[in-house]
Amino acid sequence: MRLIELFFLLLKSDRLSTREIAQHFxxxxxxxxxxxxxxxxxxIPVIIHRGINGGVEIEKTYSLKKGVLNNNEFNFAMxxxxxxxxxxxxxxxxxxxxxxxxxxxEKAKSExxxxxxxxxxxxxxxKLDLEGNFHSEIIxxxxxxKVIEVYIDSxxxxxxxxxxxxxxxxxxxxxxxxxxxxxxxxxxxxxINVKDQVFNxxxxxxxxxxxxxxxx
Length: 216
What we know:
Elements: H1 2-12, H2 18-25, H3 29-41, E1 46-49, E2 55-58, H4 64-67, H5 71-87, H6 92-104, H7 106-118, H8 135-144, E3 146-152, E4 155-167, E5 170-177, E6 180-185, E7 191-198, E8 213-215
Parallel strand pairs: 6-8
Antiparallel strand pairs: 1-2, 3-4, 3-7, 4-5, 5-6
Domain HTH deoR-type: 1-54
Pfam families: HTH_11
Organism: Paraclostridium sordellii (Clostridium sordellii)
């Protein structure tokens, strides 16, 4: 993630010293020097000026499309961002698109116009808010196999969370409730409570278990 942020920092800035960059990211100068080497390996024209007035910059004529991605990769990357921006409520995808428009110019603008002209996204009525409310807690519990209490209306369910599942009618939590595998529509959940209890059993993957899953 820091590598991407460093890339965009250099694109939007005039010449910066490695010390200034290190202070910006709160890391050592040596760490930044290694990051600059990685950008160079990726084909990004990082220019390092030596001396008193030295510093680091990216070649002014640099194009993201020409430097990192071939034409098909660029098109698919823009399509993925376009779809993500229509699915997710938070502005991360919109900000990424703006940054790519900044460095890729007319090609990116043309791609977005084509998507708007030829693609209709009718996937879910409500955008997903993956940063708000309890989503970070659910992801934590999925990762570390923590049991959670899920509050829906006046009912409380103690479940083992397995994965998020995006269906055409919205986002769901795939979980195990007692001996049943269930899908819980996220928009029905009022709140959750993370328990100290950890589950160690290997739970059946969603794709291989679709026929046995109930929608709560």
